[in-house]
Amino acid sequence: NAGVMQNPRHLVRRRGQEARLRCSPMKGHSHVYWYRQLPEEGLKFMVYLQKENIIDESGMPKERFSAEFPKEGPSILRIQQVVRGDSAAYFCASSPRGGEAGELFFGEGSRLTVL
Amino acid sequence: AQSVTQLDSHVSVSEGTPVLLRCNYSSSYSPSLFWYVQHPNKGLQLLLKYTSAATLVKGINGFEAEFKKSETSFHLTKPSAHMSDAAEYFCVVSAAGRRALTFGSGTRLQVQP
User: Fold this and answer.
1) Contact residues on chain B for A103, CB-CB shorter than 8 A
2) Residue B96 has pLDDT above 70, yes or no
């Protein structure tokens, strides 16, 4: 039973380019969360999605960032016109149910470097 | 509002000696509390969780934590450190009805031979 799969594991972009990070949740999980980890810091919540719905995006920057979780396929975190401050590790987590945020299963992260 | 404070950014112990990683929380609601571990360049793994049952919670790899409401603390302990315990540890709080987890800034545990 595969865990949460994230790709790419490492991504390098130049300022102004777009970054797309993908997350496939664990089998049977329909709830996906994205977190960002800046160097030497804890994880910060960005967005919570269910299939085809954004449930909570209170942690998403207002501009350049978007997320989706289509009916078919992985969840995508998209960052347009990247800047150096976007360099971070982006973690995806999934759970079989929403409501109370119980145990989340995390992927190994996608590490974005903006040159 | 909810928050969590990890009192030590780095802890260094010798192999075979006890581990204590400190965590204090603040929550307007009855919280659920978790400890996650992150090994270098890896995802996070749940060590243990408290969800208003027994106040002493046992987790994986010999770790345990005690929920103390009067002190708003949830410290993580292990009687005897192993080299493989070297990692980053995060204390996490989730309030009832809140979907998102709030992470502490982490404690890096070093284990000396």
Assistant:
1) 34, 46, 49
2) no
